[in-house]
Amino acid sequence: MATYEYRCPRHGAFEVRLRIGEASASVPCGTCGGQAARIYSAPGLAVTPRPLARALDRAARTAETPDVVTRIPGRRPARRR
Ligand SMILES: [Zn+2]
């Protein structure tokens, strides 16, 4: 047996105990009999939050090509006058 979470639009989340593999995408709500959609909360579905991913991405890019100093001072091609 496993516990699955479903959410009724009117009555909120509730748990249903079913045999593994028998959980359907929706079950009737125990209170109103309406369709309650399954909530997928498996730990494996967690992904890196987008802002964090963006920050890590930017940090990695900055390490490769710093955008503050783009050339060594004094190494600019000498301009003839
Ligand atoms: Zn309900």
UniProtKB/TrEMBL annotation:
Stored InterPro entries = Regulatory_FmdB_Zinc_ribbon (IPR013429)
Superkingdom field: Bacteria
Task: Using the record's annotation, list all stretches that form the Putative regulatory protein FmdB zinc ribbon domain.
Answer: 1-41
Q: Which SMART domains match?
A: CxxC_CXXC_SSSS
Report the NCBIfam families cross-referenced here: CxxC_CxxC_SSSS
**Protein's UniProt name:** Putative regulatory protein FmdB zinc ribbon domain-containing protein
> In the record, what lineage is assigned to the organism producing the protein?
Bacteria, Bacillati, Actinomycetota, Actinomycetes, Micromonosporales
